[in-house]
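Before the break, one more example. Copy the sequence into your notebook; we will annotate it together after we see the structure.
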Amino acid sequence: MTDIRELLAINLKNLRAARGWSQAKLAEKAKTSTQYIGMIETKIKYPSSSMVHRLANAFSIDPSKLFSRDIDPQTTMKNAKKAVIEDFSKEICSIINSLAVEKVKNISED
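Here is what the structure looks like once it is written out:
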């Protein structure tokens, strides 16, 4: 029988893998450290309820899914695709903003 810490560790690893995320990427999204994610995944630490919510939010899933024995791969992939699109959109916006600031700076200098 799988205990709750093991379920959480397995599901975190699987959800990260489905998105192609490193522990560092998940840590960034959940506003925690890479080391803490590693300790959860190796069952050294067990997260608080607020951390469980932050982890679930990072994956755009209900917190109960982190403890599910049957995470639906199709739902996981839909969420993964959505997360990738959101990340890409944020990166594009950041690049466009940087270019706009640079252009305004160049115009001001002329």
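The mean pLDDT is 87. The CA atoms of residues 15 and 76 lie 7 Å apart. Try to locate both features in your own notes.
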